[in-house]
Write a sequence for this structure.
């Protein structure tokens, strides 16, 4: 075992992992975080806690992660390189480890243009792949970026994101290989709607044997409405929503789109369970966390294994 | 070249509000090429300033001068003979020129008529685009001649990010994804297999603005 | 054919020669309005001279707006060099517009004026207007096309 991470244990045991997501509040009330966590208790193995997602100011990921850990859940801290330089990053890593964090997801982070403070300076001192390398170096060699030794180095189970649907497609598998070479342990993909394209990407991943070096968790998000599907198709960068998906939601009839969306998501999870190279599923039910338990049950993934 | 554009007229007029005798100094260098501060622009801005004053029943004397450059002391020196007759220097050179004016003529306010934007070049007539951030440590040989610091909105050295879509950057559908351009170039040069998967090391930002104000010296050229 | 006597003509070989600066200087020197009369689009002897003129007129309009001067005090018109009646119509139309705007504040020092451009209305010219105007046409009444 590389870390004390519960997620690592589950993945190592060969069980199909389930993770989900929790967005911290735009305020300092810890109770909001606890309530979101309670919705997921017992249905997921670990919970991602986002880091100022879409560049909108929210309670920090590490703080919200600690709150979740206090109520017995397994958090995955997310860290972007948009808002912190290497000094702050290494400092936050030491702090997170001191507070008992075991999982870290390394991201570049959405450009601040999308967020609520677009006039801010962006940092991007290092990028997401260099961050993976940094966290890996800390764990394996106990060293800071400048090569000096760390007293009591943090040992994180290291994650990153992958987007099989972004361009250019030609380098999406090489990019995963790059992250693997930098030391990543697990990957969560962008949410999938285009299963054909996803299978194509997975073929490239499996051909290179990357699924054996890195645990891949496929991302899914249930569609709430036809409007949501259209919005995601048109306005979210790196998102691939085929017209068939929108047609299917429309075909379900008025008022039934949400139920159909959940149904589609559960079908996806069932298919992903059988797909070669997939070690788990990452369910991102944005502002719809209460639906996660029923989806996990319907997909035959409840109860979660004890490790 | 250094690209800039004229400040809004309202802002310029406010800057010169207390004065009725100014020297408007242009530059035949970069700002002339990007049609922001050359001789022509001096004429137009001077006329606009006079129109604004006349309209309000006030007067102003605007001396129109265009220097070879405003980033060399020898050219700044050329206005010594008359500049002290004026209350302010409105420079429409880049920020460098304005500062040279301020440094040389300490008792005369040096006002910026331009907003200086970036280092770049002409894309087509009337369009100028950014190409260089002056990071002080060029890696263009490793990225097929496309700068990742400047052309990637996140300055990624191991790009692209997951927001690259249709060859365009997530911040604006009209901005090309810098890393798409790099990948295309590396592919055309047959270097994609080798160069792309190499982990680009951490950048040393001390050679850029982050390290503090910079200076380049050629000892062999000093007197 | 008669056109308002306050319209002063300056001849140039092609409106492509019109610089933004000439338009500004004309207003500085006291003109209440300046209009550029160029050939019909597509008929320019120098291909795009009149297109460039149109853009420069647009640029000067934006400068005037920023200064609190009505952008209608500069304008671009297109006409065939041989079309005398059109020349007269434009002269009258523009004269009427400037009359409605009143004397240029640059002359009177009266301060900023409204900067919305008002759509032209059909009206009969009311005798001799007092305001001075200048214009620069591409051709002249002698049916001589603009020479290269």
């Amino acid at each position: 075992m590389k870390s004390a991470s519960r997620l690592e244990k589950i993945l190592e045991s060969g069980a199909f992992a389930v993770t989900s997501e929790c967005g911290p509040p735009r305020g300092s009330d810890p109770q909001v975080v606890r309530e979101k966590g309670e919705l997921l208790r017992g249905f997921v193995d670990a919970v991602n806690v986002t880091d100022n997602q879409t560049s909108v100011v929210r309670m920090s990921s590490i703080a919200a992660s600690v709150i979740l850990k206090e109520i017995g859940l397994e958090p995955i801290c997310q860290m972007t390189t948009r808002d912190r330089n290497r000094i702050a990053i290494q400092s936050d890593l030491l702090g997170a480890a001191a507070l008992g964090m075991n999982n870290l997801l390394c991201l570049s982070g959405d450009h601040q243009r999308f967020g609520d403070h677009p006039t801010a300076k962006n940092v991007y001192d290092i990028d997401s792949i260099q961050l993976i390398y940094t966290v890996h170096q800390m764990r394996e060699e106990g060293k800071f970026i400048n090569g000096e030794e760390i007293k009591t180095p943090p040992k994180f189970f290291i994650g990153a994101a992958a987007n099989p649907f972004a361009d250019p497609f030609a380098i999406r598998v090489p990019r995963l290989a790059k992250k693997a070479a930098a030391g990543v342990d697990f990957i969560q993909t962008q949410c999938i709607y285009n299963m054909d394209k996803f299978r194509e990407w997975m073929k490239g991943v499996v051909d290179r044997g990357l699924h054996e070096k890195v645990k891949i968790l496929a991302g899914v998000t249930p569609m709430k409405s036809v409007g949501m599907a259209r919005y995601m198709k048109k306005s979210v960068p790196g998102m691939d929503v085929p017209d068939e998906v929108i047609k299917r939601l429309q075909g379900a009839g008025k008022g039934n789109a949400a139920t159909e969306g959940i149904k589609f998501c559960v079908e996806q999870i069932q298919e992903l369970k059988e797909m070669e190279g997939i070690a788990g599923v990452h369910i991102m039910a944005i502002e719809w966390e209460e639906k996660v338990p029923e989806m996990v049950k319907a997909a035959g993934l409840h109860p979660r294994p004890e490790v | 070249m250094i690209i800039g554009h004229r400040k809004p007229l309202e802002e310029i007029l406010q800057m010169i509000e207390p004065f009725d005798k100014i020297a408007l100094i242009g530059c035949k260098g970069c700002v002339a090429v990007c049609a922001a501060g050359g001789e022509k622009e001096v004429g137009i801005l001077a006329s606009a300033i006079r129109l604004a004053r006349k309209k309000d029943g006030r007067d102003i004397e605007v001396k129109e001068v265009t220097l070879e450059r405003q980033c060399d002391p020898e050219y700044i020196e050329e206005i010594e003979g008359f500049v002290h007759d004026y209350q302010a220097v409105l420079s429409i050179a880049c920020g460098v020129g304005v500062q040279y004016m301020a440094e040389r003529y300490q008792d005369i306010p040096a006002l910026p008529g331009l907003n200086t934007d970036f280092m770049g070049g002409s894309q087509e007539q009337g369009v100028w685009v950014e190409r260089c951030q002056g990071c002080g440590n060029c890696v263009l040989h490793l990225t097929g001649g496309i700068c990742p610091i400047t052309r990637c909105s996140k300055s990624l050295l191991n790009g692209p990010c997951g927001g690259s879509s249709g060859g365009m950057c997530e911040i604006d559908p009209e901005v090309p994804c810098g890393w798409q351009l790099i990948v295309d170039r590396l592919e055309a040069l047959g270097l994609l297999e080798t160069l792309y998967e190499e982990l680009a090391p951490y950048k040393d930002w001390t050679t850029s603005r982050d390290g503090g104000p910079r200076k380049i010296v050629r000892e062999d050229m000093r007197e | 054919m008669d056109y308002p006597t306050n319209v002063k003509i300056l001849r140039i070989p092609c409106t492509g020669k019109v610089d933004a600066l000439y338009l500004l200087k004309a207003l500085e020197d006291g003109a209440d309005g300046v209009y550029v009369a160029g050939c019909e689009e597509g008929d320019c002897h120098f291909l795009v001279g009149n297109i460039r003129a149109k853009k420069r007129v647009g640029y000067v309009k934006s400068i005037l707006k920023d200064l609190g001067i009505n952008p209608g005090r500069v304008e671009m018109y297109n006409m065939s060099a041989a079309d005398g009646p059109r020349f007269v119509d434009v002269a009258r139309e523009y004269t009427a517009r400037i009359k409605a705007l009143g004397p240029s504040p640059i002359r009177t020092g009266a301060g900023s004026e409204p900067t919305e451009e008002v759509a032209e209305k059909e009206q009969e010219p009311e005798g001799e207007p007092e305001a001075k105007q200048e214009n620069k046409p591409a051709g002249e009444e002698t049916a001589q096309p603009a020479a290269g």
Notes: The mean pLDDT of chain A is 94.
